[in-house]
Design brief:
Glutamine Phosphoribosylpyrophosphate, subunit 1, domain 1; five-stranded antiparallel β-sheet; 6 helices; 40% helix; alpha+beta
Length: 258
């Protein structure tokens, strides 16, 4: 083999270091996407995501998709791949409901999506899907959260974040996840918004770029975009102002004593 041999032209060629570069490129595409956060309590599952706009004149890209009455996904990575997988998941849910007369269990669907993603890592002429999914849903009254990756791996989480600067969001989740099981819906969504704020860097979190999805205890899916997210944006800003007010209060007390 010549020195110019390339190991990243397809997904079935292993490099001498034992790496498949095409899969690594797909996982890098997920890291380049805007952040998406998922978390669950005993009664609810929530996804919060940060939408991006290509220009001030353009609309924001959709980040959250409804899959079934009891299930939704948030994506990070290549939006076309996310739309393709969302259509596949919807069809699977419709077929299962038509044949068996009941909702498709979320864990089974995630397993099917992971198998479908892995096909793109094993066959010549195909490529891995360059998108990561956070899947929330309700199964027998219990909220569930799963993450799938381009490699075909999937895991279940109490809370997780994917996409750009998601490590900052995960750090926040790791510090606060013990509060989630007994949290109210409002508190759970606020924690998701705070995690998104950690990943937002210089971007301001507002009703235009924040998108929320909620699955309630009775299995109802609710999606909030634009003005519908404003109450939670207001709560987020109020929580930012509260620590500043608490720090200012002791200083004011000291001035009075002097």
């Amino acid at each position: 083999m010549g020195g110019g041999w390339q190991y990243d032209t397809d997904c079935i060629t292993w490099s001498p270091q034992g790496r498949i570069h095409q899969i690594e490129y797909a996982e890098e595409a997920v890291k380049q996407g805007s952040c998406c956060v998922g978390l669950v309590s005993k009664t609810h599952a929530v996804i919060a995501s940060l939408k991006r706009s290509n220009s001030e004149l353009g609309s924001y890209q959709q980040k959250i998709y409804k899959i079934d009455e009891h299930m939704g996904i948030g994506i990070a990575g290549l939006t076309p791949d996310g739309r393709l997988l969302s259509r596949y998941m919807r069809n699977e849910c419709l077929n299962h409901r038509f044949v068996y007369g009941r909702p498709l269990p979320i864990s089974r669907l995630v397993n099917q999506v992971a198998d479908k993603a892995q096909i793109g890592t094993q066959r010549s002429g195909k490529r891995p899907y360059g998108v990561g999914l956070l899947v929330i849903g309700m199964h027998e009254g219990e909220p569930r959260l799963f993450n799938t990756s381009p490699s075909g791996l999937y895991d279940e989480y109490k809370a997780h974040a994917i996409g750009g600067r998601s490590q900052a969001a995960r750090t926040y989740l790791e510090k606060t996840y013990e509060q989630y099981p007994d949290a109210s819906l409002e508190e759970l969504v606020l924690h998701g918004c705070k995690a998104i704020r950690e990943s937002a860097a210089d971007h301001d979190v507002n009703c235009k770029n924040l998108s929320l999805a909620i699955v309630t205890g009775d299995g109802n899916y609710i999606q909030l975009d634009d003005e519908a997210t404003q109450p939670y944006v207001d709560l987020l800003k109020a929580s930012e102002d509260a620590p500043a007010a608490a720090e200012a209060a002791p200083a004011a007390d000291m001035d009075v004593e002097e």
